[in-house]
Structure formats: C-alpha cells, structure tokens
Fold this protein.
Amino acid sequence: MLELSTKTISLSTDGFNHIINITPQLEKFLRESDFVEGTMLVFVPGATAGITTIEFENGLVKDLKDFFEKLVPMNGHYYHNDTWHDGNGYAHVRAAMLKPNLLIPFANKRLCLGTWQQVVLIDFDNRPRKRELVLQLTGKLAFDGSD
Amino acid sequence: MLELSTKTISLSTDGFNHIINITPQLEKFLRESDFVEGTMLVFVPGATAGITTIEFENGLVKDLKDFFEKLVPMNGHYYHNDTWHDGNGYAHVRAAMLKPNLLIPFANKRLCLGTWQQVVLIDFDNRPRKRELVLQLTGKLAFDGSD
Amino acid sequence: MLELSTKTISLSTDGFNHIINITPQLEKFLRESDFVEGTMLVFVPGATAGITTIEFENGLVKDLKDFFEKLVPMNGHYYHNDTWHDGNGYAHVRAAMLKPNLLIPFANKRLCLGTWQQVVLIDFDNRPRKRELVLQLTGKLAFDGSD
C-alpha cells in the first residue's frame, strides 16, 4: 500500500544561470519522512528554470554555464523579448530544453544517486528570483503492515 | 491510499515543429477526476515528438522553432535518412534530446505550474500526424477515508 | 490500491557514447511482475550517462553520436578536466543535458511506446563502465480485489 507526501521548499537565487545544489534539502525531506522505498519528484514551477543532476564542483559548474551561453546566447535576438521587453528570451529557451522536472528513485530510505551525482536547480532568468520548488514522495512507508 | 487513472487523448498536428498547448486537456482530465493530490504523467508514444513546458506566446514559439532549426537543421545530413529515405532524421534527433515524457505535480486539485507556464507537445516530424498522448494520474482521491 | 516494485539491472558499456537498447530488460521486468497498469521509472545513477528513447537503428545511432560530438566536443576545453584530469568533462555536460531519468506509462501490461520507439542508455564516459540501472514499477496489480 502506497502513500504520497507533498512539500514546497523556498529558494532565493541570483538568476543569471545560478546553479544551486538542492540535494541536502531533498535528503532532509526523505530522512524526516516515513518513506523507505519509492520515487521523489522535483519540480520547479516557472518557465525560466530547470532541474538536472551534475557532479557539483566549481569546474563543471563553469562548464555548464559556458555550454548554455554558447547554445543559447543571452544577447542573441529573441522574438520573446519583442513581446515583453524583459530581455530573458534566452532563459525561456534554455528552460524549455532542460525542463522543470526530475524523478529520482529511492530505496532503503536513500536516494539512488551516484556517489558524485547531485541534484541542481538552474535559474536562467536575468534577475534574482524567489523559487518555490515542489517535492513529492510516492512509495512505501516503514512498518507498513500490508507489505 | 493511492489510486491511478490512465487516459489517452488524440491530437492532430501539422508536423514541422508544430508546438501545441495541451494544458487545457490536462486540466480537464484532472478536474473531471476525483484526484486532489499527486502527479500527472504526460507521454507521447513515437520517436519524433516531445513534451516540455514554455510560456506559450507567439514570440517564444518562434524562438523555440529557430533554436531547434539551428541546433539540428532539417536539411543537414542524417544517416537515418539513408536507412528509410523519409527525410525526418532531424526530427528523430530533436525528439531524442527533448524526450517524450513530463511529470507534473498537483495539489488541491491544481497542477503546480507557474502562472505563465504551459505544457506543450512539439511534433518534429515532416508531415501532419495523429498523436495519441497517454496521461496518467497517480495520487490521493478526495474523500479518501484512509487518509 | 497501488503497489511498487524496485529492481536493479547491471550493464557493461563500452563508454564513448555507447548507445544500448534496454527495452528488452524493461519489458521482461514488466512481464514477470504482477503489474498491469502504471508507470515505469528508469534511472541511471552517475553523472556521465543518460536515458532517452529513439528508433534504435544504426543510422540514427550514428546521427545521435554526431549530434552530441558537435554539441559538446570531446576535445573541447572543460574546467572539469582541470579539476580531476580524467578528461571526461564533455561527458558530464552531455549527461546534465540529457538527464538520468525517464518515466514510461504502461497499460494492459504493455509499455506505451510507439512501434519504432525503444528506450536507450547512453554512456558518455571515456572508458568502459559497469552501470547499475534502477527500475521502478508503480501501479495496479492484476486481480486486485480493491479495484
């Protein structure tokens, strides 16, 4: 028999492709819950940010920023900017490609991540932002008599 | 105690990177169900289309088409075209990158999307297509005595 | 009433963007289970591999390798390489973009994939690797009296 639990966590970002390691918050949510086996959904509402996993070290963080800048330059021409004149068209394109969701399995009350693999939020927007991430645990509880 | 419900929805696309806002269909499925909290999976069977979220406005739709054309040009050389001679190798590469799935949390019977964030199907194929999307709700029902 | 089942499968890869069709293993896991309707999560722990779907034929496999090489060249400069000197910075960037997870619905005990759509692991690392993929089934069992 399965259960489900939803939580939101608040984050302040610097924008401008700020890459934030959110793994500690995910591990805390799991540790303080009664879930032992299942999946954790991580979702960032909004159209200018995304979620993925990386080895969170300074070199790779720079590489990833360089990659996105080369792929979708901040100062390129975007029709979206003609619509709203807020200059973050690049952020929308990057976020559409990276997508706002990630699903991670857990077992024995631990996220099934690799040793050097962390979960990160990337905020592509061109200003500091408050973000409210949605986390959802679905799975089996400890001491579930039905199992 | 959780339940699950599966539905397919049919869409006609123009192909050629047609970007379709499917948020109304997703909201309808949720509204007409008994689910109040959980996750909605959106999946497009087929290897030439993908699902993501964007702010659905004309400028950004153009930007996203331009982005994919620059990244994986329709008229580039693709070995896949040598295999089948149907000329949609570019569509396969784009779809492999964007992926056919998206998972969105919902709570209080509402999808946890940002104010300007819509869910879109992008059909990369080089002809009009019929698509049968699979939607799945997993979560808690209203008036669930066990909760 | 829903249930959940977790399994790991071991794969040996050649590294260097080895693309492996893992659909048979996924179908076997589903077939040998009691699940009839739900979702299958596929997740690869580690920061240098990803999961997606493609039409698995030689031409497209070549196209996809060419695409990643053009997008994130193996011999480019990566700060990550300055940190560890293991030369796989490119693999980390590609994996961050493709992401390690995929969620596939199933119904009537069959994965809802397109006729020509297979699930693949792409190992971007620059050496052969052992990978332990995590598979999770969530959904309804056959002969579930509560349904």
